[in-house]
Amino acid sequence: MTEDEPEGEGNDYDDLLSRARKDLPDEISNHSRFEIPEIDAMVEGNTTILRNFTDISNQLNREPEKLLKYLLRELATAGDRENGRVVFKGKINPRKIRDKIESYVEKYVLCSECGRPDTRLVKDGRITILECDACGAHRPVRGKKKKVHKTAESERIEEGGIYEVRIQDIGSKGDGVAKVGKYIIYVPGTTKGEEVKIRVNSVKGTMAFANRL
């Protein structure tokens, strides 16, 4: 307190500030930064198990099927839900799973205006809109554009070429089978239904052999 400040003025300000904080609505005064549940994942053989997948989707208030579809696409693998958990094909670092979930939250959960998770996904024609119940803001959710190196069926498959393909079947030796135009491409370590990026190692007639990237 300065010499010119009336006695008790500082205390009056503190009292007013304290009373103002007490008068705040509970949903505002108790609001804290949104936290994603800790990732409970473990590698088991050639699979990775996310044991608390259902808890995570419930916390995000999003449909498990849509969250799983996003993770499978971003992690470039296959997987299935089993009793509240997800079993991914392959060995995946839990940190990578968390990074993808954080990206999902940023894009599909948090309001870009107020930063709160009190949002809903609604369809407006073919556009998905993220609407915030807390502040009323809304924004379109734009899908990620795929970087396709070569996908046109009229293109010639070349050794060393990079392509994005869909695994349509599994061969007799367990390799994934993709088709591009007249070519049949064998890709080890893939499962039916996956969309993967590959590099072609060799081409023999209309058959090609590749590795996933």
Task: Outline the fold blueprint.
Elements: H1 9-22, H2 26-29, E1 41-44, E2 47-50, H3 53-60, H4 64-75, E3 79-82, E4 85-89, H5 94-108, E5 119-124, E6 127-132, E7 138-141, E8 162-170, E9 176-180, E10 183-187, E11 195-204, E12 207-212
Helix pairs in contact: 4-5
Structural write-up:
The chain is α+β, with helices and mostly antiparallel strands and 213 residues long. It has two domains: 41-141, 2-Layer Sandwich (Defensin A-like), CATH 3.30.30.170; 162-212, Nucleic acid-binding proteins (OB fold (Dihydrolipoamide Acetyltransferase, E2P), Beta Barrel). The protein has five helices and twelve strands. The protein has helices spanning 9-22, 26-29, 53-60, 64-75, 94-108, and strands at residues 41-44, 47-50, 79-82, 85-89, 119-124, 127-132, 138-141, 162-170, 176-180, 183-187, 195-204, 207-212. A five-stranded mixed barrel has the order 8-9-10-12-11. Strands 1-2-4-3 form a four-stranded antiparallel sheet, with no helix packed on it. A three-stranded antiparallel sheet has the order 5-6-7, with no helix packed on it. It starts with 8 loop residues before the first helix and ends with a strand. The relative contact order is 0.09.
Keywords:
213 residues, alpha+beta, Defensin A-like, OB fold (Dihydrolipoamide Acetyltransferase, E2P), 2 domains, 5-stranded mixed beta barrel, 4-stranded antiparallel beta sheet, 5 helices, 12 strands, 32% strand, elongated
